[in-house]
Amino acid sequence: MLKRVHFPTSALPYLLVAPQIIITLIFFIWPASQAVYQSFLIEDAFGLSSEFVWFENFQILFEDSLYLETFWRTILFSAAVAVLSMGSALILAAFADRVVRGATTYRTLLIWPYAVAPVLAGALWVFMFNPTLGIFPYILEFIGIDWNHYLNGGQAMTLVIFAAAWKQIAYNFLFYLAAMQSIPRSLIEAAAIDGAGPVRRFWDHIFPLISPTTFFLLVINAVYAFFDTFGIIHAVTQGGPANSTTILVYKVFNDGFVGLDLGGSAAQSVILMILVIAMTVVQFRYVERKVEY
Amino acid sequence: MVENRRILGIVSHLVLILGVIMVALPIWITFVASTHDAVRMTQAPIPMLPGTHFFENFKQTLFGAGLSGSEGAPVWRMLLNSMAMALMIAFGKIAISLLSAFAIVYFKFPFRMGFFWMIFITLMLPVEVRILPTFEVVANLGMLNSYWGLSIPLIASATATFMFRQVFLTIPDEMLESARIDGAGPLRFFWDILIPLSRTNIAALFVILFIYGWNQYLWPLLITTDTDMTTIVMSIKQMLEAAEQSPQWNIIMMTALLAMIPPVFVVVGMQRLFVQGLTETDK
C-alpha cells in the first residue's frame, strides 16, 4: 500500500488529494447522502412541505406490483443480455483461439462495437427493426411474423436485449480470448495426445480453466445491463409499450424527472446503490481470490 | 494448433466470418442509409447496397441545416461539444487520479486511508443511482449548460486512481532513493520520474476515458437545455423522435455515423493501448 521509502509528512499530500476529494464530496458523497435522506421523506402534492416517514417509501415500493414487476424484468433482461452476449463471445473466442493466421484481423473486426454509445446502438437496431421500413420486419413477414415493437411488448423486449447484447460482445470477446490464450499450450497438447477431440478439449479443459473469467464477466455484464443500457431503452422504447421494457434505472429516471415523485425515486436510487455495492463487493472478493493462485 | 484438420480450420474461419458479419451488419445498414436520398429511404425494403448521395448527405448533415424542420444546433457544433466534453473528462480524470495516487503511495499522512476509502466509495455510486440530487447540486452551482457542468461531476474516478496506485507500487524504491540523493523534491520526482515511467499507462487510460466521455448520454441529457450545448450522442434521440413525423433516415444515419467515427477510430487505431487500458482498469 505505502512505499517503504516515502516522503516526510507535510501539507503537500493534502494539496495533492484535494481536487479528487473535493469533487468526490460535492458530486458523489453529498448527492448520495441526499438521496438516502430524501428516501425517508414524503412530499405533499404541491411540493410545499415534506414529512419524515422512515421506511414508508420503501414499504410502498415493495407493495407496488409495478415496482416488483420492474425488478424481475430487470433481472430477466440482465440475464438474457449476459447469456446472449457472453455465449456468442465465447463461441467466437474459441474459434479465434484456434485460428493461427488472421487472428488479429478478426479481433480488430470484432472489438469496435465497444466504442459505439448505447444510445447509438439503440438507434441502429431500431432502424433495422422499423416496422414499416426496417430490413428485419421485411424478412420476418415472409415467415409469417408481424413485427411491431411499438405495440408488442415481447418484441420490444427482444429488440432491446439484442441491441444491448450486440454492443457488449466486443468486451466479452476480448476477455475470453485473452483468457484462452493464457492457457499453457502443453496442457491442451497433452489432452490431444490422450485422444481428446476439439469439442472434448473445450468442455473438459478450456471451459473450466477460464471459469474465473466467466464469473468476472457475469458481474461486469450484470452491471452493464443494470445501468449502462439506459440509453438503449430511452432511444428504442422509452420503457414502453405499457412498461414492458421499463428497467430499474429507467424507472428511477422516469419517476424522478418525469413523474416528479422525489421520495419514491430517491428510495429506488437507494435500492440501486445497495445493488451496486453488492456487485462491487462480489467483484472485489473475486479479484482477491484470483490473486491467490 | 494441436492437430491439423483442414475441415476444422475452414469451419473456424466460417464461424468467425459469420460473427464479423453479425457484428458489422448494423453499421453496414447505417452506412448504406447515409448514402441514399431521403425519398429512397422511405420505400420498403430499404436498400442493402450503397447509393450515390454520400457526399451530399455529408455536407447537408455537417454544415447545412441538418434535419430540416428541427431547431437543433448544427452537427459540427455538436461534434465540437462532444469533443470538448470527452477531452475534459479524459484529461481531468487522469490529472486528478495521478495526483491522488501519488499522495497515497508516496506520503505518510494522517487520514491517508480515510481518503483512500472515500475515493473507493465513488466506485459504488454511478451517476445513474444519484441523478436527481447530483442534478440539484450542479444546478445550485450554476453549472447547467456549461462544459464545466458536463465534465467535472464525471471526473472523479476510483478506477483510474487504483490503476495509477498499482503502477506506482511496481516502481522500485531505489528510484526514489537515488532521486532524493540527487536532491529532487517530491514534485520534481513526480514530474521527472513518475510521469515518464507511467506514460504507456496514461495513454492506455486515455483511450478508455475518451470513449467513456464521448459516449455519455444520461448526464448531458439532464444538464443541457440550451441547444448550443447539445452533444452529438444526445442528438440522435431527438432525431429519432423527429423521424416519427418526417422520416429523413439518410440524415439521421449520417449523424449516427459521424457520432461513432471518433471513438471507433480511437479503438481501431490504438488497439494495443485500448486492450491494455481495458484489462488494466477493470482489475
TrEMBL record, chain A:
Main location as per UniProt: membrane
Which keywords, in A-to-Z order, does the entry hold?
Answer: Cell inner membrane, Cell membrane, Membrane, Transmembrane, Transmembrane helix, Transport
Spans through the membrane: 12-30, 71-96, 108-128, 156-178, 206-227, 266-287
Supply the InterPro entries for this chain.
MetI-like, MetI-like_sf, UgpAE/MalFG_permease
Q: Name one Pfam family in it.
A: BPD_transp_1
Q: Where in the numbering of this chain does the ABC transmembrane type-1 domain appear?
A: 71-283
Q: How does it sit in the membrane?
A: Multi-pass membrane protein
Tell where it localizes: Cell inner membrane; Cell membrane
Organism domain of life: Bacteria
Quote the NCBIfam families the UniProt record gives. Answer: PRK10561.1
Q: What does this protein do?
A: Part of the ABC transporter complex UgpBAEC involved in sn-glycerol-3-phosphate (G3P) import. Probably responsible for the translocation of the substrate across the membrane.
How does the record describe its quaternary structure? The complex is composed of two ATP-binding proteins (UgpC), two transmembrane proteins (UgpA and UgpE) and a solute-binding protein (UgpB).
Q: Which PANTHER family match?
A: BLL4140 PROTEIN, SN-GLYCEROL-3-PHOSPHATE TRANSPORT SYSTEM PERMEASE PROTEIN UGPA
Q: What family does the entry list?
A: Belongs to the binding-protein-dependent transport system permease family.
Name of the protein? sn-glycerol-3-phosphate transport system permease protein UgpA
> What organism is listed for this UniProt entry?
Shimia sagamensis
Lineage of the species this protein comes from: Bacteria, Pseudomonadati, Pseudomonadota, Alphaproteobacteria, Rhodobacterales
TrEMBL record, chain B:
Keywords for this protein: Cell inner membrane, Cell membrane, Membrane, Transmembrane, Transmembrane helix, Transport
Membrane topology qualifier = Multi-pass membrane protein
Q: Which InterPro entries match?
A: MetI-like (IPR000515), MetI-like_sf (IPR035906)
Q: Does the keyword Transport apply?
A: yes
| Cellular compartments annotated | Cell inner membrane; Cell membrane
Where would I find the ABC transmembrane type-1 domain in this sequence?
79-270
Q: Where is the major localization of this protein?
A: membrane
Q: Name one Pfam family in it.
A: BPD_transp_1
Q: Does the keyword Isomerase apply?
A: no
Residues that span the membrane, as ranges: 7-31, 84-107, 114-135, 147-168, 189-212, 249-268
PANTHER family listed in its UniProt record: ABC TRANSPORTER PERMEASE PROTEIN MG189-RELATED-RELATED (PTHR43744), SN-GLYCEROL-3-PHOSPHATE TRANSPORT SYSTEM PERMEASE PROTEIN UGPE (PTHR43744:SF8)
**Family per similarity comment:** Belongs to the binding-protein-dependent transport system permease family.
- Summary of the function given for this chain in its UniProt record: Part of the ABC transporter complex UgpBAEC involved in sn-glycerol-3-phosphate (G3P) import. Probably responsible for the translocation of the substrate across the membrane.
Give the multimer and partner information: The complex is composed of two ATP-binding proteins (UgpC), two transmembrane proteins (UgpA and UgpE) and a solute-binding protein (UgpB).
Output this protein's name.
sn-glycerol-3-phosphate transport system permease protein UgpE
Question: Taxonomic lineage per UniProt?
Answer: Bacteria, Pseudomonadati, Pseudomonadota, Alphaproteobacteria, Rhodobacterales
